[in-house]
């Protein structure tokens, strides 16, 4: 059944209710990103008040990552099977309650538990929200515009979290935990009114319970192993056995999915080259950025002696550039296509990371740090929306939640893996000297790794440029209009047929 919102979107009319629905979904994504970035600055205050060790503090961050990264696959498919609206609203309510709990507890274990629950709820709101957008807005300019606004809210939330945490932590770390609660409640109330009801997927034949159990367990164990590896050692028996167990579980998971009548992940979607490039690109993009932010935050606060707020303001130009591009990116994607924008974005990211290698113990912000921040901000503005658009194009409505969960899993797993690798490289290059120059020298190999990861993303996405010159693309253009320079968007029925051809790569 087609909702009035979907009809309005397909006709190109953005009604107030359509805008309201998009803003509710953007608010949830904004909160997810805000929550990830806000907690980092507050950790020293939390440790001091609750008397927590460094290893325990780590789990305040890792607990969220574990719940989020481990359950995204399940969250995406659940949205398809049980209804996107229902899953989104229930998970958002849980997120609000967990935020309230996190700001009131006086125990480290309870705080970690609240963070895990928040990550778990975000694992359901993120793919459900993205799939609501992709099933409401038809593929083409309208969807591209909506996704560019949506993904910009995520990047803005991440940047705002850094600034807000610096301000709120001055008063109390509890405010950083409590802030998302009222925003989530307001979004929930608006969502109950605005988000259209969605039907369950009636095409599935039963539930893939074995796949859900094995897939979720393997993702949880993978994220847990990567997060713990820098602490217990990459070559320790525990780490190696855990990776072996993950490999075995993933092998079993693939066999189960191939035989399941209603799989958690239909592996056939990965036959599309565009889909594979989007998933791998997401891992490289977020993995390199998280590693970069980690090292730069240490550099600014530990070596330069900057305050948390000063550090947050140093990152602000990148976030501001992303926010300012929100209304422009949809039209840019329509004009140039996602493959070109991904290549350009990763190229800017590589240059930005490489330029930061020039830093020393007495940098001139405008000449050394600011150019890197602007280049990385421009890269994020190009890459993040393009990845979401490329991953969801050509996918049937009943599988949008699945693909959204898969993309978000790639983002989180990439962030966890490459952050752990960067941390291990920095630790291995530490000389034991506490001199500022020695510490800075230990950071440089980590920055080289970050740059190399971005180069890998550039090479992977560059293979998509050849895709635009294949005979299939010529056929699609010919079906739309004889003049390739001014190819209009196909009508809804034609778009579905074209999407199926494109998805086979």
Summarize the structure.
With 505 residues, this protein is an all-alpha fold. The chain has helices at 4-10, 16-50, 54-82, 84-104, 108-136, 141-171, 173-178, 180-194, 209-232, 237-259, 273-303, 308-324, 329-336, 338-356, 365-392, 400-428, 436-462, 471-480, 492-503. The chain folds into two domains: 15-200 and 262-469, Growth Hormone, Chain: A (Up-down Bundle); 208-261.
Keywords:
505 residues; mainly alpha; Growth Hormone, Chain: A; 2 domains; 19 helices; 79% helix; globular; disordered C terminus
Structure, described:
The structure is a single chain. By secondary structure, this protein is mainly α. The chain has 2 domains: 15-200 and 262-469, Growth Hormone, Chain: A, CATH 1.20.1250; 208-261. The chain has helices at residues 4-10, 16-50, 54-82, 84-104, 108-136, 141-171, 173-178, 180-194, 209-232, 237-259, 273-303, 308-324, 329-336, 338-356, 365-392, 400-428, 436-462, 471-480, 492-503. The longest helix is centred in the first third of the chain and has 35 residues, at 16-50.
Write the layout of secondary structure elements.
Layout: H1 4-10, H2 16-50, H3 54-82, H4 84-104, H5 108-136, H6 141-171, H7 173-178, H8 180-194, H9 209-232, H10 237-259, H11 273-303, H12 308-324, H13 329-336, H14 338-356, H15 365-392, H16 400-428, H17 436-462, H18 471-480, H19 492-503
Helix pairs in contact: 2-3, 2-5, 2-6, 2-8, 3-4, 3-5, 3-9, 3-16, 4-5, 4-8, 5-6, 5-16, 6-12, 6-13, 6-15, 9-10, 9-16, 11-15, 11-16, 11-17, 12-15, 14-15, 14-17, 16-17
């Amino acid at each position: 059944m087609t909702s009035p919102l979907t009809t309005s979107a397909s006709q190109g009319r953005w009604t107030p209710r359509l805008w309201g629905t998009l803003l509710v979904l953007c608010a949830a994504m904004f909160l997810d990103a805000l929550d990830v970035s806000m907690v980092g600055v507050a950790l020293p205050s939390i440790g001091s008040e609750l008397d927590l060790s460094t290893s325990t503090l780590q789990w305040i961050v890792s607990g969220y990552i574990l719940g989020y990264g481990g359950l995204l696959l399940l969250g995406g498919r659940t949205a398809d099977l049980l209804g996107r609206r229902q899953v989104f609203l229930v998970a958002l309510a849980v997120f609000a309650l967990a935020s309230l709990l996190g700001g009131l507890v006086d125990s480290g274990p309870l705080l970690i538990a609240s963070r895990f629950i928040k990550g778990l709820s975000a694992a359901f709101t993120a793919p459900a929200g993205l799939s609501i957008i992709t099933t409401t807005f038809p593929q083409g300019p309208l969807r591209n515009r909506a996704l560019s606004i949506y993904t910009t809210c995520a990047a803005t939330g991440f940047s705002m979290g850094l600034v807000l945490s610096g301000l709120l932590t001055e008063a109390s770390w509890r405010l950083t935990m409590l802030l998302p609660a009222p925003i989530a409640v307001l979004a929930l109330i608006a969502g109950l009114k605005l988000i259209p009801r969605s039907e369950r997927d009636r095409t599935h034949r039963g539930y893939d319970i074995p796949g859900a159990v094995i897939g979720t367990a393997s993702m949880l164990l993978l994220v847990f192993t990567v997060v713990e590896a820098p602490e217990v050692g990459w070559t320790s028996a525990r780490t190696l056995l855990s990776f072996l167990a993950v490999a075995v579980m993933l092998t079993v998971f693939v066999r189960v999915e191939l035989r399941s009548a209603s799989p958690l992940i239909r592996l056939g979607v990965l036959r599309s080259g565009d889909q594979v490039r989007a998933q791998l690109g997401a891992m490289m993009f977020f993995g390199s950025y998280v590693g970069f932010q980690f090292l730069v935050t240490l550099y600014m606060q530990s070596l330069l002696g900057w305050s948390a707020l000063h550090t947050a303001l140093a990152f602000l130009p990148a976030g501001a550039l992303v926010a300012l591009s929100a209304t422009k990116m949809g039209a840019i994607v329509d004009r140039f296509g996602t493959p070109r924008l991904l290549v350009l974005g990763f190229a800017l990211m590589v240059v930005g990371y490489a330029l930061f290698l020039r830093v020393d113990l007495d940098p001139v912000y405008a000449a050394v740090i600011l150019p890197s921040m602007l280049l990385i901000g421009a890269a994020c503005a190009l890459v993040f929306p393009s990845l979401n658009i490329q991953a969801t194009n050509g996918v049937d409505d009943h599988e949008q939640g699945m693909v959204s969960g898969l993309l978000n899993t790639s983002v989180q797993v990439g962030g966890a893996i490459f952050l752990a690798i960067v941390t291990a490289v920095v630790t291995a290059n530490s000389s034991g000297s506490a001199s500022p120059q020695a510490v800075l020298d230990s950071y440089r190999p980590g920055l080289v790794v970050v740059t190399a990861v971005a180069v890998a993303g550039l090479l992977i996405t560059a293979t998509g440029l050849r895709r635009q010159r294949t005979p299939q693309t010529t056929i699609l253009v010919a079906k739309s209009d004889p003049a390739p320079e001014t190819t209009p968007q196909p009508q809804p029925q034609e778009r579905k047929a074209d999407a199926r051809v494109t998805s086979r790569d």
